[in-house]
Amino acid sequence: MFEFRKTDHEDLTILYLQGHLNALTAEQLRGVINDMVMTQRRFVVLDLSSLELIDSSGVGALVSLFKRIRGFQGQVKIAGLRGQPREIFQLLNLHKAFDIASDVEEATRELLGKMKGGPHDLGRLRRLGVLSK
After folding, report:
1. Is the residue at 128 inside a domain?
2. What range defines the domain where residue 99 resides?
3. Domains identified in the chain, total number
4. What CATH number corresponds to the domain at position 109?
5. What is the DSSP string of 82-127?
6. 129 in a structural domain
């Protein structure tokens, strides 16, 4: 099973992934990635804290997102990497290619510092429902 939830606020997108990202489910994510690229979402946080499993198709989808967002000077941060997905990232040396933060709040804080004219207050993002409390 794979589920995702996306929240947008100004230039910031937080994409929460849950379950198994594999050959059967990666296509769902590719549609969201295409939408984010088409709308030029420049600052993206991927919350992988609830992702239980990832295979090569899932990794391919994340690498595609990373490359496409970087193609228009955007930035992607990975948050909450743990368990099997973390092991895969280390095995493939992806932890050296991706910016990885311990949690969504840390990743968001780092990206907010790079945003021009964006929301610079984590409290404001919580009140707006962009970040969980």
Report:
1. no
2. 2-114
3. 1
4. 3.30.750.24
5. -HHHHHHHHHTTHHHHSEEESSHHHHHHHHHTT-SSS---HHHHHH
6. no
Distances (CA, A) of 112 to 13, 28, 51, 105, 133: 11, 28, 24, 10, 18
Kindly state whether residue 130 falls inside one of the protein's structural domains: no
Residue 9 lies in a domain: yes
* d(C-alpha 72, C-alpha 128), whole Å: 27
Residue 130 has pLDDT above 80, yes or no: no
Per residue in 23-59, pLDDT (tens digit) is 999 999 999 999 999 999 999 999 999 999 999 999 9
Does the structure show a pLDDT above 80 at 83?
yes
Q: How far apart are the first and last CA of the chain?
A: 26
